Amino acid sequence: MSVNLLYHQTSAKLEEEQGWIRRAQKDPEEFGPLYEKYHEQIFRYVHQRMDDQELAFDVTSQVFMKALKNIKKYEYRGVPLSSWLYRIAKSELYQTFRNRKATRTVNMDTLNLADMVEEMDDEQNELNRKKLFEMLKKLNENDLQLIEMRYFEKRAFREIGEILELTENNAKVKCFRALEKLKKYFIS
Fold first, then answer.
1. pLDDT band (50, 70, 90) for residue 64
2. CATH of the domain at 171
3. Is residue 56 a contact partner of residue 47, using CB atoms and an 8 Å limit?
4. Co-location of 89 and 161 in the same domain
5. Which of 78, 82, 122, 179 is most exposed by smallest CB count within 10 Å?
6. b or e along 111-136 (b: 16 or more beta carbons within 10 Å of the residue's beta carbon)?
7. pLDDT tens sequence across 118-142
């Protein structure tokens, strides 16, 4: 599996980000570079989980409002700030679903599905894309989230663990189990 550079950073980039965070912790006016860096990424995460684009913008705004309000509490754990932002986004999504009694949806593009089918070592990609989309609907929320983060967003297990508040090893195990469930649905 190739690494998606959108989600992975060099140590120099992490150090630069830590400087932005320290400045934002001292002065909220300095939050801008962090917002610019992660807004689109967080919006895509939120929008992939709901059908309403306007609502996705609203939820994304709430994520950054909470992040700005709580930036002084942020503690560096060896992963990008995005892991913290994704935890906030996950919480805001669930709250939105509870408030609106909405159901979660999955928005995926063809390339992501193709990557997933390749990961499953299947040769009939076109037929399997349609079947895969139907099988993804059978997964529970937690398994679906693991599959999305690992195979669609190409996140490292360490980052998945940080976002979901799991150990890296536990993220690997849970992801493997979710993939096994998906394979069983796919084969049956």
1. very high
2. 1.20.140.160
3. yes
4. no
5. 78
6. ebbeebbeeeebeeeeebbeebeebb
7. 554 445 556 666 777 777 788 888 8
Do the beta carbons of residue 164 and residue 155 sit within 8 Å?
no
115 within a domain of the structure (yes/no): yes
Distance CA 9, CA 69 (A): 25
- In this prediction, residue 30 carries a pLDDT of 92
Residue in this structure with the two tokens 């705004």, named with its chain if needed: 61
Are residues 175 and 157 in contact, defined by beta-carbon separation less than 8 angstroms?
A: yes
The residue from 51, 78, 100 where one domain ends is 100
Rounded to an integer, what distance in angstroms lies between the CA atom of residue 106 and that of residue 135?
A: 12
69: exposed, middle or buried (Cβ count in 10 Å: 0-12, 13-18, 19+): exposed
CATH number for 59: 1.10.1740.10
Q: Do 128 and 73 fall within a single domain?
A: no
Number of folded domains that form the chain: 2
Domain coverage including residue 53: 11-100
Query: Helix/strand/coil (H, E, C) string of 30-86?
Result: HHHHHHHHHHHHHHHHHHCCCCCHHHHHHHHHHHHHHHHHHHHHCCCCCCCHHHHHH
Is the model's pLDDT at 81 over the cut of 50?
yes
pTM over 0.85: no
